[in-house]
Amino acid sequence: MDELFHSLDYTDERRIRLVSYQLQGVAKNWWTTTRRANENQGTAVTWSLFKTEFFKRFFPISYRKEKGSEFVNLKQGNLSIEDYVSKFDSLLRFAPHVADNEEAKADHFINGLNPEIFTLVNTERANNFADAMDQAKGAKAGILMQRGNQLAPQ
Question: What's the pLDDT band for 136 if we cut at 50, 70, 90?
Fold first, then answer.
């Protein structure tokens, strides 16, 4: 949303109004109380303040650390390449030091691949995540094709 707001040149007030309009239930009540408390203390209600308070309330540090740890320890295991990519993408936001660096992202992705695929992909190490993902998919397809040929009657 930050990228969208930035590209549309939304002011802090407009960002907060749009997001708070979409809040429901507990989140709506939380924001009403939080905004009122900040205004009563004379604290400017900015987009940065909203995000900080929102993350503190709904994504506590313990949760973010847990997800960050899950990302650090992520391995392909029994997952298909597509499922591994999906899991990788969903946890990546909890590791901004990796997310902001294409080479680090590619390295982390490759290092989590199953050994058979890792060996094929690691020989021509990708410099970005998209290339690493394409190489992994190609390697998996090659392995499946090779296995199929070995099983075919000669």
Answer: very high
Q: Are residues 83 and 144 in the same domain?
A: yes
Q: Is 151's pLDDT higher than 80?
A: no
Q: At CB < 8 A and 24+ separation, what contacts does 94-101 make?
A: 94/64, 94/67, 94/68, 94/70, 95/68, 95/71, 98/71
3-class SS of residue 80: coil
Q: What is the pTM assigned to this prediction? A: 0.69
- Structural domain of 35: 2-58
Same domain, yes or no, for 34 and 76? no
End-to-end CA gap in the chain = 57
pLDDT band at 154 (very low <50, low <70, confident <90, very high): very low
Q: 85-90: long-range contacts (C-beta < 8 A, 24 or more apart)?
A: 85/109, 85/133, 88/112
Query: How many distinct structural domains can be found in the chain?
Result: 2
